[in-house]
Design goal:
The protein is an alpha/beta fold. The chain contains 16 helices and 17 strands. It binds adenosine-5'-triphosphate and magnesium ion (MG).
Length: about 500
């Protein structure tokens, strides 16, 4: 019999190829110690930093400390189910979340497991929790406004699409309220919203979800929640999960997105707890040294993308809670320096009934000015300075200093402007309505009305205009322009209504 060597080598080669194909390396290690959401693992030498791990019972973990003989990983989810000496498999992948249209309208954990009783998220598409922030070539300047529907913010601290604006203030000063009103105001504006709750009470989160649902915002909103009852690692990844979801819609669907992180003080505390358990060295206020990096790598992902990349945007509204108004504490100053401005809410103003309790002296928007529509710019140009001057004068007036008539007039005008800028929750205004309201005050037309009637006048005026001259407001809404001729017409109408309003008073 003749042996064909090439046939044999062919068969051998084929078998070798198949052998390699079947080889599927699964690296398995053992848990040597577990507690407080942290596991020490032996036998996973080749693991990467931040690699995703699989414990028994499908519990997910992430590699944090790579040490000489072992590694330390955090456990997401129920760590009580992870036992010592159980197996851990490495996945060769970094942490990611499922993304896609399915997540819209849902309330989810940071790992995208349902919290609302709905079906599990069954999408093949995933996105890395952490990804590099776009570079300068991929960005374009922030120019389009993101209307909050709150007149004081849109007029004085305008927010642009792609901006990062911090909401900062003591506890119970209306921080969450501003974020929620902003989300409510995005209805019909084609902005996808993500609300990330970090370390809040379950009852508070339930309330927020209820508000979002009642106002019909869930059609375009995703809620990611890690409550105070969840483990520190879960709270730690929550904002990254929210950001990844928003990024998906921005990069893949060219959408404008808004991400609220409520709040990053609790996020920092969760990370501190995690780092201490991981035995990392501590820095100021016992926070680990990379706490600044933690927040900057999150907030740097906010962007207005270049036209080449589809011109989507990610606007971030991080929230920070201060103690006794201390904005110079460690975490607040860190985040103030990372963001493009801050809305500072003051407890005294809040209790005095000035709500939203914005301290105009300390609140700024560093890029939003370019994003204001012309009509708003025109009426609001002097508002900030006037109000700041008013608060200064108020200090003197309280001391009993005699004021000259000009200062007296400014004081009266300021009082009316403060009154005019008050706004109850859940009643966002359109740009046109905001412009008309501010014009009424700054033109001095309200100077002869009693201060306590201003608020009612403002709401009644808008209703009357919508009824009698609806074109005026809708025209501003539509093209964002306010000509001198329009100002004259509006002034006439406001004066006309003032007559009607005065007559109706007892
Ligand atoms: N513009 C407003 N007008 C009237 N009430 C308001 C306004 N804004 C907020 N509130 C009320 O003030 C309370 C505190 O508001 P909110 O929960 O938004 O504050 P917070 O600063 O987020 O509080 P926390 O520190 O608990 O997170 C709520 O009961 C809310 O309804
Ligand atoms: Mg809150």
């Amino acid at each position: 019999m003749k042996i064909d060597i090439s046939e044999i080598t062919g068969i051998l080669k084929q078998q070798i190829r198949q052998y390699e194909g079947k080889l599927d390396v699964v690296r398995v290690g053992q848990v040597v110690e577990v507690g407080d959401g942290i596991a020490r693992i032996y036998g996973l030498e080749g693991a990467m930093a931040h690699e995703m791990l699989l414990f028994e019972n499908d519990i997910i973990g992430e590699v944090f400390n790579l040490e000489e003989n072992s590694l330390a990983a955090v456990i997401y989810g129920d760590y009580t189910k992870v036992r010592e000496s159980s197996d851990v498999r490495s996945t060769g992948r970094l942490m990611s979340v499922p993304v896609g249209d399915e997540v819209i309208g849902r309330v989810l954990t940071p790992l995208c497991q349902p919290l609302d009783g709905g079906p599990a998220i069954a999408t093949e598409t995933t996105r890395l929790l952490e990804s590099d922030a776009p570079g300068i070539a991929q960005r374009q300047p922030v120019r389009q406004p993101l209307q909050t529907g709150l007149k004081s913010i849109d007029a004085m601290i305008p927010i642009g699409r792609g901006q990062r604006e911090l909401i900062i203030g003591d506890r119970k000063t209306g921080k969450t309220a501003i974020a929620l009103d902003t989300i409510i105001n995005q209805k019909g504006k084609n902005v996808l919203c993500v609300y990330v709750a970090i370390g809040q009470k379950d009852s508070t989160i339930a309330e927020v979800v209820d508000i979002l649902r009642r106002h019909g915002t869930l059609e375009y909103t995703v809620v990611i929640a890690a409550s105070a009852a969840d483990s520190a690692p879960m709270q730690y990844i929550a904002p990254y999960a929210g950001c990844a979801i928003a990024e998906h819609f921005m990069y893949e669907k060219q959408r404008d997105t808004l991400c609220v992180y409520d709040d990053l003080s609790k996020h920092a505390v969760a990370y501190r707890q995690m780092s201490l358990l991981l035995r990392r060295p501590v820095g100021r206020e016992a926070y680990p040294g990379d706490i600044f990096y933690l927040h900057s790598r999150l907030l740097e992902r906010s962007v207005k993308l270049s036209d080449k990349l589809g011109a989507g945007s990610l606007t971030a509204l991080p929230i920070v809670e201060t103690l006794e108004g201390q904005i110079s504490a460690y975490i607040p100053t860190n985040i103030i320096s990372i963001t493009d401005g801050q809305i500072y809410l003051q407890r005294d103003l809040f209790h005095a009934g000035v709500r939203p309790a914005i301290d105009v002296g300390v609140s700024v928007s560093r890029v939003g000015g370019d994003a204001q529509v012309q009509a708003m710019k025109k009426v609001a140009a002097r508002l900030r300075l006037d109000l700041a001057a008013y608060y200064e004068l108020l200090g003197f007036a309280r001391l009993g200093t005699e004021l000259d008539p000009a200062s007296q007039r400014r004081l009266e005008r300021g009082r009316r402007m403060v009154e005019l800028l008050k706004q109850p929750q859940f009643s966002p205004l359109s740009v046109g309505e905001e412009v008309v309201t501010i014009l009424a005050g700054s033109s001095g037309l309200l100077d002869d009305l009693p201060v306590e009637q201003i608020s009612r006048f403002a709401t009644d005026l808008l209703r009357w205009l919508a009824d009698r001259y609806p074109d005026l407001v809708t025209e501003i809404d539509k093209n964002g322009k306010l000509s001198d001729e329009m100002v004259v017409r509006l002034t006439e109408r406001i004066t006309e209504y003032k007559g009607v309003f005065k007559e109706a008073q007892p």
